[in-house]
Design brief:
InterPro entries: ADP-ribosylglycohydrolase (IPR050792), Ribosyl_crysJ1 (IPR005502), Ribosyl_crysJ1_sf (IPR036705). This protein has a domain of 96 residues. Helices cover 56% and strands 0% of the residues. The chain has six helices and no strands. The longest helix is centred in the first third of the chain and has 20 residues.
């Protein structure tokens, strides 16, 4: 498996896991140990769907493949938001997008403190691992 195959597998696997996990979001586990069903318990039908984490990972890939700067990345997120390519974004991400659109520097945008406790950054970091390896290789080749 070469470098591009690994990159593709990582992004696709992340998207599949994200879609599968989306069917469990906001679900509350119930204790059925005292419930006796007549027949079989109805199982919830799981519906997979793409989420903002996958959409923003793809936006990150686009920026990394062109010309990465933090400004280009937030501008791509804004572009995705304006074109309605982002579904179900969290409050911190939405605030960061709106703050940046309003003119606040990207490094100052978004929620702070206990209200900034999202996991979106962890969900979107995978492309950077491949970018850094590729970038380092390209730099060495150009020397």
């Amino acid at each position: 498996m070469d470098f591009l195959d690994r990159f593709e597998a990582c992004i696709i696997s992340g998207a599949i896991g994200d879609a599968w996990g989306s069917s469990y979001e906001n679900e509350v586990e119930t204790d059925d140990s005292h419930i006796y069903y007549l027949g079989k318990k109805n199982k919830k039908r799981r519906v997979w769907s793409i989420t903002d984490d996958t959409q923003m990972t793809l936006a990150t890939c686009e920026v990394l493949s062109d010309s990465f700067t933090p400004e280009n990345l937030i501008n791509r997120f804004i572009e995705y938001y304006r074109s309605r390519k982002l579904t179900g974004i969290g409050a911190s991400t939405l605030k960061a997008i709106l703050d940046t659109e309003a003119g606040l520097h990207w490094s100052q945008a978004g929620r702070i403190g206990e209200f900034a406790a999202g996991n979106g950054g962890a969900m979107r970091i995978a492309p950077f691992a491949f970018f850094l390896r590729y970038y380092k290789t390209e730099c060495l080749r150009s020397m």
